[in-house]
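Record type: monomer structure entry
Structure origin: computed from sequence
Chain ID: A
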Amino acid sequence: MVAKAVAAYFPEDSLVSVLTAQPIDRMLDYRAPEGGVRSGDFVSVPLGPRRVLGVVWGPGEGGYDRAKVRRVVGVLDVPPMAADMRDFLTRVGAYTLTPMAAMLRLATRAPGLTDTPGMRRVYGLGDRAPDRMTAAREKVLAILEEQPDARLTGAELAAQAGVSAGVVKGLLAQGAILEYETPRDAPFAPLNPDLPGTPLTESQSQVAQALAQGVA
């Protein structure tokens, strides 16, 4: 089993080397921000009057007045670039005589990398009782009481309860349900190999048996 490389940690104010996608033929040194950074972190750094995207590549070189070194503005809320990817970019750049800035530009062309995640409004059970209870309101509250940790959109909650959106809005106005904001693209739940598969139809079962016999 191959050991996974551990990202180096650089505490606040330590020098870090940052690779940017700008047409510069070298890494740039910055001071680590509050909370520090790790190698591979995507960061926002000042470059002249602008802020640009960069990746923490390793420790800074130093050898000059630290007081003149600017600080990393912030760490992006995205997964860091893996050590294997950084090594791959370095190797390909060296083999093809491609500047590292251009290699990083190729690796970070995914649209929306620096955008803040889109948010959506979801609802959960509140701590107040409505001033007037109706059959429709009871259905909505029953859904949330059955799954108190659930966070459902207004449309999902109304559909499950079989009521109109106005019922949900009325409960929200009275504090019987609460509104939250959550990232629109929530991460997938971890895979559970113990969960049973979806039952196959008769025709699907016949195809599955035929395939199984073909590789037996």
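Annotation 1: Residues 6 and 83 are 8 Å apart (CA to CA).
Annotation 2: The chain has six helices and nine strands.
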